[in-house]
Amino acid sequence: MPVSGKTPTPHTAVPHERSNWSAARPALAAAAAFVASLAVMLAARRWLDPVLFICVAAALLVATSAFMLLRARREASSARSEASIAINQSGVNEARMMAIIRSSMEAIITIDEHQRIVLFNPMAEQVFGCTAMDAIGASLERFIPQRFRAAHARHVEQFGVTGVSDRQMGRQRVLSGLRANGEEFPIEASISQTRDGGARLYTVMLRDVTERVRAEHAQQRAREELRELSANLQNIREDEKTRIARELHDDLGQQLTALKMDISSVEEALGGSASELVRDHLQGMRRLIDATVASVRRIAADLRPVMLDDLGLIPAVEWLANDFTNRYGIDVERDIETGDARFSPAGATALFRIVQEALTNVARHADATLVTLSLRAGDEGFVLRIADNGRGAHRNGELAGKSFGLLGIRERAHMLGGAVDIQTAQGNGFALSVTIPAEAVQMQELQS
Fold first, then answer.
1. Structure pTM?
2. Beta strands 370-378 and 331-337: pairing type?
3. Of 396, 386, 398, which is closest to residue 422 (Cα–Cα)?
4. What is the helix (H) or strand (E) element at residue 178, kind and residue range?
5. Is residue 176 part of a domain?
6. Facing residues of 398 across strands?
7. What does the DSSP 8-state code read for residue 7?
8. What is the DSSP annotation of 150-174?
């Protein structure tokens, strides 16, 4: 509520002695008339000596006058005391309000209907770098950047028409203020309106949020840097997986194959001269080499399947679903329809890893018997959905979506500009949907 700097001049209504007599005169006249009439009646009937009666009547008249005068003075004193208390209370309330405004940690500015400043508290002086003496009487536009002045004037005008007593300004965004030295800075503000007599006054309470906005920007930059670091680490990790997988498949696999061929050559060289024990050892070695080759291929495929680079995303996802069923005995129903889309290496890798991580989570946590895998081209891009019929993702009252696997899925989707949606309930399975823009995962056509 706006508080003016002017202190009202008290008008104390103190009755004068003349007013006391004026108030008592009608009663005294009535009493005198009554006594005179009574005296005439008594004298005529000889009930009492007229002189003695007049003395008694005069004494009664004096006593009545004294009583009336005392009562009038007492009423005047009571009225004077009440007026003094009201004036003192008003002064105390105004002083208390001004003390609150002066000590407020928020800048408080009151303007009239013409947006001229009528109140400018010390915090406003500190925020805008301008003294109250220079600010009072000036237009509020002095402290608003040029490009926002017209919009601010319309906002105040519309606010005055609504009749709403208070409102938070800039609810969806941070406003801008202008210091006396020309520096712009972010503020948060709220506005209230009231009437002082016939005039409308607006009070704006604002706060300098420069430090908070700077901290938010720093936090946002740090978050973006962490995402960039995470993306870089993902790429490095993927490159390292690719290198190790190729070395396992090409180098170690070839050596094991060569060792198996050497064992076959030894068996042929020994012919029938080899004892039964030696032949059994050689066959055991061959079986061990076959198992080792299978393990090397499985490890290399887990690191990065060769077909992802050689054949593309769809065959790699088909192989992943078949391998998942063979390992865990969980059926995977597939619904893959991508048309003639050509996936970029980065997009194919991201989608493949999302499917791989989702199936891994099913194997570890879902206790499911069926998984539905869908990859379709939609209006907003490609939609990948993996759902199971397991027990859901609620464990100990918390969503399992906080696991590192799902965090990794979110990060991969975010790097491609996509979004992740999770639908789950205890006992009703788990459904993961990933929507990724088509341009983020498709091969870009080279323009001549």
1. 0.58
2. parallel
3. 386
4. strand 175-178
5. yes
6. 395
7. P
8. HHHHHHHHHHHHH--SEEEESTTS-
Q: Which domain holds residue 151?
A: 104-208
Over residues 401-422, the pLDDT tens digits come to 456 788 888 888 888 889 999 9
Domain final residue pick, 304, 332, 356:
304
Q: Is 323 exposed, middle or buried (0-12, 13-18, 19+ CB in 10 A)?
A: middle
pLDDT at 286 over 50: yes
Q: How far apart are CA 389 and CA 110, in angstroms?
A: 64
Q: Which amino acid is at 43?
A: A
Structural domain total, the chain = 4
Amino acid at 113: E
**Alpha carbons 163 and 192: distance in angstroms, whole number:** 10
Q: Are 382 and 441 in contact (CB under 8 A)?
A: yes
CA-CA-CA-CA torsion sign (241, 246, 252, 256): positive
For the segment 110-168, what is each residue's pLDDT rounded down to a tens digit? 988 888 999 999 999 999 999 999 999 999 888 999 888 888 877 777 776 665 655 56
Residue that terminates a domain, selected from 185, 208, 231:
208
